[in-house]
Protein 1
Amino acid sequence: MVHRLIAVALLIGVVISCTCENDSKTVDPISTTYEPKFREDGQLWFLDESGKDTNLRIAVEVAMTDEEIQYGMMYRKSMDELKGMLFLMKNERPQSFWMKNTYIPLDIIYINSQFRIVSIQKNAEPLSETSLPSFEPALYVLEVNGGFCDRHNVKVGDKVYFEHRRQ
């Protein structure tokens, strides 16, 4: 009984604290209380232009449903250097992403159906609603930490290979 009273008192304190904050500022309750955890669904290898030599391997979380693709990296406050989110798009076409509700800068890598990197949007600005287009048709999109491509010499024309466990 005492534990329940303490829990209720703490909850009331949190509610009062939240309602007393600056009313002119909108607070997103999801972003302040929940940060999605990385789910390792597979691996992705960066290859040289020939596709024969592996330059780097990272773990990937795969987004394949409409909801996962729309949600993407939103509300995440960090990501390990050798991790990324791989989006499996439904159609190969020019793609475009934005950074709404995304708190960390990202490099957005657009990849075509031949697994060749066709374009890279580097250091995308957090929380921006500016469209970040692929400029060329892409079937896959990979998001990694901002500056990743420069740090690991990933460039347009390089190839990737990936395996994932999700169906």
Protein 2
Amino acid sequence: MRGTSLKTKVAACAASFAAVAAVVVTAGPADAAEFTVSDNCNVPWISCSYGDLWVFYNSKELAVQGGYYKSAFATFYGSVSDHYGTSQYQGSSLSTYRYVFGNGGNGNGQYVKNNAASVQNCAPGDNYRVYFSSGYGGTSQYFAKNEPYGDCNITNLISALKNNNASSHIA
């Protein structure tokens, strides 16, 4: 019985290696999921009851007209280090939640990060700051808490932050 030539063995080994490499290259993360939410309270690992800081897609002149919200908005409770979203491993699964404007109106479905024009602080006890950079850096704007029996006043972001919002923090 004749043995297999070295050339044939090398070719077979190279073909096997190529097949395994193709499988490895095309395989993606085993368990990864991405979701969109317009309220950070809808992220499973964030404990809160409702959003206090409302971030609007439009400026205040367009966001509320005739007593009705015309602009899409997102609500945040507590500090949010990145308006793009948050990710966390739960076991071996990576879950990512992207913050988008929701609730209908102009901008519905757009990402919150770098797309906001106005803010409304409805927190009865918390002041907020909105920042230019993720991680609470750069230029910021202060929004005072909502006084008892007061309206949640909507305020336009300053020009340095309009469509350049990246994080928000309890001040």
Protein 3
Amino acid sequence: MKVNAVIFWVLAVFFALVAALYTGWSWMVSNQQLEQYAQRVGPGGITAGHPEWAGTVALWLCAVLAGFLAFYVGKSYKSQGGELPEDRLDANIDDGDPELGHFSPWSWWPIVLAGSASLLLLGFAVGIWITFIGAALTVIAVVGWTYEYYRGNFKH
């Protein structure tokens, strides 16, 4: 994780440099365009140029996001109390293979839930009456997925 934190810090610095260059460049181009316009039309009411906002904001936010991720990954690395098996070169695959939970590979309920959720959202876009059908099917799918181990071949 330490390497990941360093990579994100490098990305944060890279995006900050690119954002600064982009902001300056777009500001310079905007000023040049305003000067050309003032030469053609006249200087009345012309103020200083401004940067191109969409790219400027996007690049600065990329730098901020990379900094946030680097900070979080660095703090996580310091608080985990040692190296994870994924970070060691001498680790085996089995070392980093904990129990992640119980999953049902044969369950059809996630597919039913996805279909009912899509009907629910389709109802907001097309017709409100479809929303009621989607909501009913969503409730049935959530209850079915929650209680699938309480009946049938797989009950506990």
